[in-house]
Amino acid sequence: MTDMVVHEYRRGRLSRLALDLLEKRGVSHGFTLRYGGVSRGAFASLNFTSRQGDDPERVRENWRRLEEAAALPSRRWALVSQIHGAVVVRAAAGAACHHRLDCPPADAIVTSRRGVTLGILTADCLPVIVASADGAAAGVAHAGWKGTLEGVAVRALESLGGGDPAGAAAGLGPAIGACCYQVGDEVYEAFREKWGAGFVRKVFKRSEPWRLDLQKANAVQLIEAGLKTGNIGVVPLCTCCRKDLFFSHRRDGERTGRMLAYACVSSAGAAD
């Protein structure tokens, strides 16, 4: 994997990060930062869920601000409930379900329809955006350690269709880094049993306790699935370290906000 060109787009105080690798394929996308919204206190300020106790009206305004700043189709969102697994669903357009309670029970969602924006909420877990070689299909995946163990990013990539994945692309957004992500022996053993000793040597750092590199783990899985190393872009920022930029469940506990990773097919080759 490689640290591709990362752009920061700013409108007013609202900023979002995007990878050159995905933009070149005609996929509108972004990884939001925590500032530029109207939420207060522990949720300050660009928080995208009321599930942890934020004011729903403020959350709705945050969604509206992003739609305006990123020129996204208003209220044409497709989200999933994020159950820490590896189920992938295909998008159906609908109103944004800010609490995720009415969304399909899955951790990845794909589409080839223009005008539908896919979204994943995170506060340490890894957001993954995948795109077909021609940009006609895209997907987003929520990869915590359980989803990573089950290969959720690879399943999202495979669900794009199009046969040989070598020309596809993947963007790995901000997530808790190995610098901060301590896990127990049971997590290490689960990965060793499923993915092998060579895999865990690449993605775990030996310490007491173990430290897991979510970005590297997903990158290795994608490469083993056929994706070219040069077609994997990374935002090399740790959500737990950078309190100025990101919400973090590991750092701040349950009462904190959520960032949004989103993708929208804009390629002329995509189906309506």
Describe this structure in words.
The protein is of the alpha+beta class. It has one domain: CNF1/YfiH-like putative cysteine hydrolases (4-Layer Sandwich), CATH 3.60.140. 24% of the residues lie in helices and 25% in strands. It is built from 8 helices and 15 strands. A 6-stranded mixed beta sheet has the order 1-2-3-15-7-4. A hairpin with a 6-residue loop joins β8 and β9. The longest helix is centred in the first third of the chain and has 14 residues.
Task: Name the CATH superfamily assignment.
Answer: CNF1/YfiH-like putative cysteine hydrolases
Major sheet characteristics: 6 strands, mixed
What percentage of the residues does DSSP assign to strands (E)?
A: 15-25%
| CATH class descriptor name | Alpha Beta
The structural class is alpha+beta
Quantity of strands, as a count: 15
Alpha-carbon distance between the termini?
A: 32 Å
CATH architecture designation: 4-Layer Sandwich
Average pLDDT value? 92
Rg, rounded, reads 17 Å
Oligomeric status of the shown chains? single chain
The percent range for helix content is 10-25%
Helices and strands, in order, run as: EEHEHEEEEEEHHEEHHEEHEHE
How are the SSEs placed, and which strands pair?
Elements (H helix, E strand, L loop, with lengths): L5 E6 L2 E6 H4 L3 E6 L23 H14 L7 E3 L8 E3 L17 E4 L5 E6 L3 E6 L6 E6 L1 H5 L2 H8 L9 E4 L9 E2 L1 H11 L1 H7 E2 L4 E3 L1 H11 L7 E3 L14 H4 L6 E7 L7
